[in-house]
Amino acid sequence: MKHIISVLVENRFGSLNRVAAMFSARGFNLESISIGETEDPEISRMTIVTRGDDQIINQVLKQLNRLIDTIKVTDLSRQPHVERELLLMTLKLSKTTQHEIFELIDVFKGKVVDIKQKSITIEVIGSPDKINTSIDIFKPYGIKELARSGVVAIHRGE
Amino acid sequence: MEAMHTTGQILNGSEIFFECLRRENVEYIFGYPGGALLKVYETLHDVEDITHILVRHEQGATHMAEGYARSTGKPGVVLVTSGPGATNTVTGIANAYMDSTPMVVFTGQVPSSLIGNDAFQEADIVGITRPITKHNFLVKDVKELAITIRKAFYLATTGRPGPVVVDMPKDVLAATCPFEWPETVEIRGFKPTFKCHKNQIEKAAHKIAKAKRPLLYVGGGVITADASEELRTLAIKYNIPVTMTLQGLGAFPGNHPLSMGMLGMHGTYWANQAVNNCDLLIAVGARFDDRVTGKVDAFATQAYKIHNDIDPTNVDKNIKVDLPIVGDSKDFLASLLEEMPEKTESREAWLADIEKWRKKCPLSYTVEPDSLKTEFVIEEVSKQTAGNAVVVTDVGQHQMWTTQFYTFMNPRSIISSGGLGTMGYGLPAAIGAAFGIKDRPVVLFCGDGGFMMNIQELVTAVYCKVPVKIFLINNSYLGMVRQWQELFHKEKYSFTDLAESNPDFVKLAEAFGCKALMADNPETAKEAIRSALAWNEGPVVVDCRVARKEMVFPMVPAGGAISDMLLARLNPKTMV
């Protein structure tokens, strides 16, 4: 089962490496990992997407907690949360496809970031499912390049 | 350096380094100088209250620090230079990590301005040792040095112990700042649970009282937690037999009727039968290592399992348990003693079963007048030291025979590379132990293969006049590998016969300036053991030329169920 784990870590060099290295050393699945500063510049938040049965996920959580640089480990999948991913994608553009592409951007509530004679760069924000769907839908028009941020997620407020 | 420097004085990094070590009550540094550490060795020249032991290879320094730490309970301290000096410590650090030994390794580093430039003698030791340390640090500013050293010792010794590396660039060691010693240390990401949960303890006490066939399975955590006394009380008061892991031996006196010896791959027949048949398994400070469990699906299948460990990651890692209790093993055992009801189920039938197993397949070997057996040497040393020596081993057959034929009476009396299985560990670990322990003999059993892996440290033992008694178990084979080749690899003895290539160990030891004896039968062995134990002017090597092709039994084949135990060579297919 897929789990989204949110980890607060010390904002120090090596913190990301410690977490990533622990995943590879113990053979845990690491689907995506993203990291950024929080409101406290000494603390970063890492969002990790991983898969495994309960026994494995419990080990993942405990092994994360065991690292000295981790301050708080939360399995967001076990509580109300929001998750988002950012997709940036450059598509081929022609007179014939232009119209449909603009319509689809609207469907996905995306934005045009840049537009040239023969290409268009768009952004889409949403759940990983929505991102996957949008990639599938845009594929026939010719994807020149794409980049995904990996999931960031947060506990819902009260 | 006469008096301690006081807080607020302007000191350079090297001076701060020694000030911090003093405040951590460090007695010994096991080290080797080099370019990045010249400033530290300049300061060290006038340091009189901390003894620096010059090793002959940095790996030796780490194993010595570990021998010192395991025999005393205090953290071992290593000091090596950058690059190759640092990378040579990797095996020792990995070993300490696997066996949860408190150790702080200080490495020199190239000047900050050169880090990342492929400078001379540069290695990213913080990167290299990340997966094999509890934590590690690169000190980027002299103002951070004291607090970093404080944190390093705190982390190495608190909770589940382990090795910590502190990497110190050359310019940081030369820079100056006012010295401030932080009296307290706070690490927000490190809060081990010491106190066991009361409800869980109550549940455990209830289960123990109700069990008809309980078994204590005790690991190194009991020794780390200094909980032997509590263990002894619990086991004896409630008649619970005790089996121990390699690191747990000595936690319960080996000559007590409730002592079952070691369990697992080369454990006793009766201990493994008890695991198979117990209705309650109480694991204390142990981690269900694969050498203990064999095939996990077949391990203690009839038992309700209680597991106490200070490291939550050990719980439900290899074996799913029924009642996990995270916390310090001393707190666990002491709290259990408070909660235990007066009346418990009778264990007479259970103890009678164990007695039956003990009689059915005792540990045995044959004594022949003109052939020397390793078992005899170990048993004789056990007798002559009354089980009170600090016994260090290397890795292999002699290590397993030591667990079977030395009767360990006290905690902190077996020092052996368990998790990593590091050949070459024994000699330096024994030297380190002998620096820590002065009131009991320090004995090393070491194979001829492992002895050659860190033989250079014999120099250290000789010049420091360290009275280690080295029993070289010389069968001129890599005996354990040979055993597996015979049993499981079609008797293809690939590269395990050392007879043609081994040196004359008596001459070799003498060339180092070490006293050396030879024994090749039970009579000469007895005499040589007596002389070696009486010799305290320095190290002594006894070249025990033992029967070459002996094998260690019982043996549970790797990955096999405990019930697949092999009992003897003649019919290795014998199933029990």
In short:
Chain A is α+β, with helices and mostly antiparallel strands.
Kindly describe this structure.
The complex is a heterodimer of chains A (158) and B (576). Chain A has 2 domains: 2-79, ACT domain (Alpha-Beta Plaits, 2-Layer Sandwich); 82-155, ACT-like. Chain A, domain 2 (Alpha-Beta Plaits, 2-Layer Sandwich), CATH 3.30.70. Chain A contains 4 helices and 9 strands. The model of chain A has no long low-confidence stretch (mean pLDDT 95). Chain A has 158 residues and is α+β, with helices and mostly antiparallel strands. In chain A, the strands form 2 sheets. In chain A, strands 5, 6, 7, 8 and 9 form a 5-stranded antiparallel β-sheet that branches. A 4-stranded antiparallel β-sheet of chain A has the order 2-3-1-4, covered by helices on one side. With 576 residues, chain B is of the alpha/beta class. Chain B has 23 helices and 20 strands. Chain B has a 6-stranded parallel β-sheet with strand order 3-2-4-5-7-6, sandwiched between helices. In chain B, strand 19 (515-519), helix 23 (522-534) and strand 20 form a beta-alpha-beta unit. Chain B is globular. Chain B starts with 9 loop residues before the first strand and ends in a 31-residue tail after the last strand. At the A-B interface, helix 1 and helix 2 of A face loops of B.
